[in-house]
Every structure is written in C-alpha cells, then in structure tokens.
Amino acid sequence: MTAEEPLLQATNLHTWFELRQWGFLRVGSVRAVDGVNFELGRGESVAFVGESGCGKSSLARTLLGLHKPTHGDVIFEGEHLSELKGEARRQYLARVGYVQQDPFGALPPFMDVRRLLSEPLIIHGVTDRDERERRIRKVLEEVRLTQVDEILPKFPHMLSGGQQQRVVIARALLLEPAMLIADEPVSMLDASVRVEILNLLRRIQQERELTLAFITHDLSTVRHYADRIFVMYAGRVVEQAPVERLLDNPQHPYTCALLAAIADVDADNALEERAVPDGEPPSLLHPPEGCRFHPRCPQAMAGLCDRQDPPLFEPEAGHYSACWLQDPERG
Amino acid sequence: MNRWMQGLRELKGYPSAVGGLGIILFLVALSVYTVITIPYSEALDRWRGGEHWQMHPVNAGPVWADRLLGGNLPQTRVVESENAEVREAPFEGGKQVRIPLTFEYDNEGFPSELNLFLNQKGTQQEAFVRLTWHTPSGEAIPLGGQRVSEESRISISQNRALEGRLGMVPHVGLFAGDSDPADPEAERGEYRLTIDAMLFDPTAELEADLAVYGRVHGLAGTDYQRRDLMLALMWGTPVALAFGLLAAVGTTITTLVIAATGVWFRGWVDALIQRLTEVNMILPMLPILVMVGTLYSTSIWLMLGVVIALGIFSAGIKTYRAMLLPIREAPYIEAARAYGAGNARIILRYMIPRILPVLIPTFVTLIPTFVFLEASLAVLGLGDPQLPTWGKVLNDAQEQSALYNGFYYWVVAPAVLLMLTGLGFAMFGFALDRVFNPRLRTQ
Hints:
The complex is a heterodimer.
Chain A: E1 8-21, E2 25-40, E3 45-49, H1 56-63, E4 71-76, E5 79-80, H2 86-95, E6 96-99, H3 113-123, H4 129-142, H5 148-151, H6 161-173, E7 179-183, H7 191-208, E8 211-216, H8 219-225, E9 228-233, E10 236-242, H9 243-248, H10 253-260, E11 313-316, E12 319-321
Parallel strand pairs in A: 3-8, 3-9, 6-7, 7-8
Antiparallel strand pairs in A: 1-2, 1-4, 4-5, 9-10, 10-12, 11-12
Helix pairs in contact in A: 4-6, 6-7
Chain B: H1 2-11, H2 15-37, H3 40-47, H4 63-68, E1 77-80, E2 87-91, E3 94-105, E4 113-121, E5 127-134, E6 140-148, E7 151-155, H5 160-166, H6 170-176, E8 189-199, E9 205-213, H7 229-265, H8 267-281, H9 285-295, H10 300-312, H11 316-328, H12 331-338, H13 343-382, H14 390-399, H15 408-436
Antiparallel strand pairs in B: 1-9, 2-3, 3-8, 4-7, 4-9, 5-6, 5-8
Helix pairs in contact in B: 1-15, 2-7, 2-15, 7-8, 7-10, 7-11, 7-13, 7-14, 7-15, 9-10, 11-13, 13-14, 13-15, 14-15
C-alpha cells in the first residue's frame, strides 16, 4: 500500500434495503452493508472474503453506484459518489469496471459480441465506428481472445464459459477503468479455466496498474491474486490485512474458522476433525447486539462480546481486527 | 441478425408458413397494384357512384362464374354512332340524320337494360329523334319519338307505352322475337336501332351510344349502383391490411413500451400503469366504437385512432409485465447500468428485444383480428362513408338483401377475401410461433 492519496475510500458506508408491507409500511431494513470503512490504493489488488449473505455483493454494487448508500459515502479520486450527477456520474461508471459472477447472464443474449462490446462505447460517446472496432479488437487481444474475427459475430451462447468471462472482462476494460470490481469472477466457471481467468485478471491488473477488488468466498485462491484481504461478516469488515499476514496469522475467530474450512488436499488429514463454527450467518434484518459473530464464536466473552460492538484494533501494523480479543487494554 | 435469419430459414420447413406467407404476399401485391393503378382520390370519387358507371349493368354477376357453369349470359355492349354508317340530308335551317346502330346478339337470356345516350353538339336548338328497332327476323318496331337537348338519355327499358305494346318489359320484348311470352327466348342474330333525327341547325352533330346492358360483368360483378365490385374488393385490400397492421403495430409497441417502463421504474409508475390497465380492461371496445361512430364520425382513421387508444392499456400489459419482471433482474441489465446505460436505453435496447421473438407470432396473428374488427364495424353500418372496403360491400349487400335476391357473389367475394386474410396471417403466425417460441419447439 502506497502512501499517496487512495483511489477509493469508503467512509462509514451503509447500504440498507427497506422492507415494506402493503407497498408503503416500513417494517424494517436489511442491513446488507453496515458501516464499512476502507481505502483502496492505486494498482492494488484486494479481496473481499466472506460467506454468502455477508454483504460482499451489496458492497460491490454500492461501490458501482448501483445501490445508493443509506449512510456514508464512497469517495473516488477525491469525489463523493453521492454528489455525482449526470455526465460526471457516467464518467465515474467508466472509471470502474464490473465483472460479474455469471458470465452468460452478464452478456445480453440477443447481441453478438461486436454489438455488446460496442454498447459501452456508444453510451460513452464513441460515435466513430472504426474507432470502436479498433478499441474492441485491442481489448479482445488483451484478454487473450486472439481469434477476434471469429469471436466478434458470435452470440454469447456460442462461446465457452471461459470465453464468455473473457468477453465480460473485455467489456469491463473497454472504457479504460482505473478500478475493476470482480464479483466472484470464477465461481461459475469450470475448474479447468478458473486459474486461467484469475491469472488473466492478475496480469491485466498489473499491466494496467488497476485497482482490483475481488469478491470471493474462496480463501484458497486469494493468496496468489490479492495483496490485501478484507474479511466480511454480517455487513461489516471484521479483519483486514496484507494477504500473507492474514492467512498465516489470522486474528479474528471468524477468519480462523474460515481458514479452517479450506479443503486440505493432504490425504493424511482426511479424517481430522475441524473446528467449524456452528450456526448460520445472522439475520441482517435483526443483527445480534454487540459483536455480530458472538453467537457462533467459540471464544465469545459473556458480558462483553454480547453487549459492546468491538472497534477495529490494530494488533500489528497494517493488520486490523474487530475483536475484543485484540483489545490491547485487555492485556 | 443471425438469429432472425436462422429462424426465417427454419420457417421454410413449415408448409403452413410457406402457404401463409404466400397468401400474405398475394394480398400485399394486390394492394400495391391497386394503389398504383387506382389512386386513392380516384377510388373515393368513383365509389361515390354516378356517371362513371352509367355504362355498367345493375347487379350483374361475375362473368367467370357464369362461364364456368356453361352459361352464356350477355355482357354489356355499347354500340357507338362513330362506327355506324351515318347518312345526312340537309334541308333549310337544319339537317336530317339517320344513324343505324347495328350489333350482333348471340347470348342466352336477355340484356338487363337498354339505354340510348344522345349527345348533340354545336347547337342550343333541341333536336327531334324517332327510333325504330329492327329484329333479326326483319320486324320493325317503332319506339316512338321525342325531343332531345344537348345531352340526353333515353331509357328504352323504362318506356311504359312500349312495354304495354310488347306485353313484356322492353329489354326482353325487343329480343324475344316470336317466342312464347310466358317463357321468352332470345332471338339470335343482327339487331338494329335506327335513329332518324331532325337537327335544327346545319352545323349541329349528333352522337348516339346504345348501351345493351348485360347480366354478367367482369371478375366480381356490379352492385345496385352499377359500381364494379372489383374496385371495392381491390381497394379493400390495402385498407384492410393498413388498418390491421397499423392497429397491431400501434397497440403492440405502445403496450410493450409501457409495460417495460412500468417494470423498470417500479413503484408508483408501475402501480399507475397497472390500475389504468385494469380499468381499461373492463371497458368494452365494440360499444365504445359504435358510440364514437354514431355520435361523432365514422372515418376509418378516427376508428383506427380509437382502436389504438383503447389498445394501449390492454390486457397485453399484464402478459408483457410477467415476461419482463425476471428480465429486469438479469445480470446483463445490471452490467448495463454499471457501464452507464440510461433508463430509456435499458428499456428499449435491453429489455424489449429480449421478449420480442416470442411476441412476433402473437403480433402476426393479431393483424387479422383488427381487419375483422374493421369489417364488423362496416357491417354494423359504421364503416368509413367514403372508402370502399370489404365490410362496406357486405353492408351494402345486406341492405339490398343480396342473398335473398340471389346476388351471392356480392357476399361471397368480400367474405372470401376476409377469410383469406385471416387464414394467411394465422398460418404464418402459428408457424412463427413454433420457430420463435421455445416451448413449442419439437426438436
């Protein structure tokens, strides 16, 4: 992480979804993202990790401007996202690329590749057909779809899953973004092409010096593709650290549990019992009081964890954890 | 677009598609031919009736139907004085003219009417004419004399005195020869009408046209106003197709866009659209059209407007909404929002094209419904007062009790064309449905 001004800053970000009855009675809010703070530097690759329903995807969509934050704001290159209107907002959308989970669903099925790649350029005012064609070909080569002439007239269903995801990545790169948000980019892909796509993303990120925000539930792949990890639980970031430090020296009990759940390829350990926390992620409609993990936490301290929300402690430099266990005053 | 081409190629495998498309193309070709050969204003002008049709018979059947049944009923013939050997003899202050109008008659049955059109040029003075009818057997029947001014029509068929003398209506009696008056038979051979005229101006000219009206005429026959039904049948085609197509396009596109707008914006926009649709669904279309037609105007374009206006918030909105709701949440739409696509673009370019292939067949089968609607309105007497349409022909036929009087062709021809239209679009639409609707795919 560099000392310069961060590319993107999330300050006290909340994204709540209102639940209504009869169309107008407010009966509560689903707190998908509930007070998240972080900074992403330029050219950095970070991973957001957590189980399903922890708010990772909602966070991604909030960063993309698809959901309006309920509180707090996203500050991108010094500008507040909530204050961007019209053309400025469009410019922001061009600066942030989005790679979705389901590559087939992410491509309009009735457009051929040429057409669907032209769309973002048309929207962003590239009216010259030759210019569009040039940029499309360039970006397709960048994602290693080298037989461009064959690919361009094809419809999404004629492409393989890997090719579809490459087209999705190409579309995200077309507008020369400064940041790429990849929401589980490989989870729907065949195992054989996952590494290819991850390597491709990593290589593009390094070549273009992009900020890459990875969203995944799979801690095993994170080590090679991210510089920093954010572990999310119930709408909050519970631990953040450079990748090696977090994986080798996890602080938060939830991270420990996640790490313990990673499949071990060593046959000798096949019968080994693992300490996997019971229960399910908490309801985002009525999150538990105090630390949100305390009902499942094996080290929960009665009277503290179920009463008070832990702040972010910094047990070592650059390594943050929201757990009372790391409270330096506790001794 | 690849997918469309592929679908069209697939259509060739369906006989009903080929047949339906054949019928549609025939109707379209007929429309184009009609509009080019008989311009709109001319069609309106002619359909108003009058002088244009004076050489046409009243209520004549189609020629081909008679010939097909081995008949030999007469067609209208007009004997003109231009081709006759006119003899002139001048006298002081005028001249005497003798015009023999000769024609060959070898048909079964009798003409339907006899009219003589006289046209005197070059003078204001009335002339005096005396007519004599010569039958093939050499009999000469005087038809009387009368004064004629510049242009006059002598209705030989209406000559009551002659009818009394012959004991039969003139256009039968004059051709009956010696046959039994109770069951007359036409005498074949050469007939002649001699016109002896006294013109009271030496410079005057007299032209005479004898119209021997037939009992069959053209491809479609004529109606009670001597109008050739072919004109209405031909002009009915572009009118019907235009009405059906415009109404179908107008209602489908607006409905689709409105449904997509509601689905996309949700909230009060959607609620408003849904409520409007529900109110509109219980409004009865036909009574409203009848009311507009009765109280305001029966112009076909106004009717088209009302049909479209009532069709905008039609039940289709509910169907389209159901189809669009899952599409709204599709990841590709989220992606489009993420790269900056605006609301209009998402609705028109991302949501609607997704369901369009499924709607094409419905759209095609919708066209004849509106064609039938227009015809029904016309039959109810709410047709366009000026335009010749199939429905108007049916309405006229009904008013003149066509079927009771045996003028079957008057009813059958427009009905067949209406059925053909329905059949063509239905056959094509059902085949399209099989190609574009995934649920009906057999392979």
